[in-house]
Amino acid sequence: xxxxxxxxxxxxxxxxxxxxxxxxxxxxxxxxxxxxxxxxxxxxxxxxxxxxxxxxxxxxxxxxxxxxxxxxxxxxxxxxxxxxxxxxxxxxxxxxxxxxxxxxxxxxxxxxxxxxxxxxxxxxxxxxxxxxxxxxxxxxxxxxxxxxxxxxxxxxxxxxxxxxxxxxxxxxxxxxxxxxxxxxxxxxxxxxxxxxxxxxxxxxxxxxxxxxxxxxxxxxxxxxxxxxxxxxxxxxxxxxxxxxxxxxxxxxxxxxxxxxxxxxxxxxxxxxxxxxxxxxxxxxxxxxxxxxxxxxxxxxxxxxxxxxxxxxxxxxxxxxxxxxxxxxxxxxxxxxxxxxxxxxxxxxxxxxxxxxxxxxxxxxxxxxxxxxxxxxxxxxxxxxxxxxxxxxxx
Length: 394
Ligand code: PLP
Hints:
Elements: E1 22-26, E2 29-32, E3 37-40, H1 43-46, H2 55-67, H3 78-89, E4 95-99, H4 102-120, E5 126-130, H5 139-144, E6 163-164, H6 169-173, E7 180-185, E8 188-189, E9 195-196, H7 199-211, E10 215-219, E11 243-246, E12 257-261, H8 281-294, H9 299-321, E13 326-329, E14 332-336, H10 342-351, E15 356-358, E16 360-363, E17 366-369, H11 377-393
The protein binds pyridoxal-5'-phosphate (PLP).
Residues 45, 101-103, 106, 134-136, 186, 190-191, 219, 221-222, 247 line the site of pyridoxal-5'-phosphate.
């Protein structure tokens, strides 16, 4: 079908989108309505951890959809329990609450921290977050985010989210007062331009929060589930946070998210938290299929090998073209362009013929790479050949 044959006008405008319709995908490749294929280094915004239409996910969806789709969140179901067990087995956390999006998981973390503050810290409710952070698009998570302009869009904000600077412990310490209950951060700021918190900062933050009896919340919606090279990014600094949120990669493309808590923060009481679709067996069965593959022996070793390869190749490209280097963790990486040509590159790469290349410019002066975690070296090489062609054409 041609683009104009689809009832596109019925969709509410929320952002500029290219005039193509994606129809199917497999692994690192996505196909549009004209049959053109695209090498996908965006993967649904770091969501498709196993690439498009992974066989294990398809099998889980098929099996579960014939068995049980939703008995209601008021009852237990098998996949919800199995996935929770897998997550507590492979992390430092004791309890799991499932949600449908990263923002919703973060809302849960905020609520849980405030409840804990009410119970144990004399009603303390402020959560220190960071400039350039991104925690979602609900009103509370927008208020928690440090995205420029979001303090006035949809004002008034939800109060209680003072902002510190990433990797600057003094800026956090300066905000702590009797109302502070927690510090919340992304171990790698994704939307902010792929800026990792240093291991030293994570360790100092853990010590500071312990000293003041504050909760440490890691938003691993983007950095978690193997994306940063370890199953969860917090592992790389050897610390144990009190709360963690997951989204994106945990569902491999389906709407699934989770809030994980240490036992001492497990303070929700009956009726405090919930949601119609939370923990539904269809999505948690897929999540189980995804997490089983991510935790299989050798999988994360291969992510680390691909990450080292991509990092080295991006650095080589940066040196060759006089760019400003590369950075990131695992398969969440950025090429620093040193000038604001990111959006132009993204556009030209998509329009290439015969095959297109899908990239993202999280900031105008960089390109962000978030391929499938099972991307091959050959696909990385092919992406670089295509990217060089785009750069030549600028
Ligand atoms: N937290 C982080 C770190 C994210 O990167 C995102 C999305 O980009 C979110 C939260 C929000 O997740 P969702 O879009 O699933 O609500």
